[in-house]
Amino acid sequence: DTGVSQDPRHKITKRGQNVTFRCDPISEHNRLYWYRQTLGQGPEFLTYFQNEAQLEKSRLLSDRFSAERPKGSFSTLEIQRTEQGDSAMYLCASSLETGENYGYTFGSGTRLTVV
Amino acid sequence: SQKIEQNSEALNIQEGKTATLTCNYTNYSPAYLQWYRQDPGRGPVFLLLIRENEKEKRKERLKVTFDTTLKQSLFHITASQPADSATYLCALVKGQAGTALIFGKGTTLSVSS
Asked: Do the chains contact at A98 and B97, CB–CB below 8 Å?
């Protein structure tokens, strides 16, 4: 297992288009998290899953955002009708249970640019 | 509202000195606090965790303290090296243990040789 993988690494899209990102967590990790990070800011929590159940969503996650984790393995984050304000790095992380003992393992992120 | 503040956006020190980074929080009672390192264009990497009943935790050249009365954590890097240059993030569980981590904005450390 080589860690958390995110695809694509970079995405440039036109305003109004839909985009989908994929995250493959560490296989034995049952928790998966999505964060968004803009320049000079820390990661902002979007949502997390325990297995296939989406347990919490931030108020940052507008109706245009949806995340899934079918079968409790990989996850996808979709943004519909993208806006320029959606431009950011989208980070995925995974952990065992709460991540309390070993922290989160992050992927390298997907950088989204909306033009 | 709940808030995490890291003392400064940037810290510049000379090689060999000790770097001290501060994380303050308000309106939390976190069960534990974590520190992460982030390099440009990469995801954060977990460094250390300290629990509310622990005063201090060490790992090699790193030391973290946690004062729940002051609502503050200090992160020290001793004998700093240019390779320690990165952004350091503190993170807290925002609610009960089991909910997601909330991160501070980070402090960017630059170590010059």
From this structure: yes
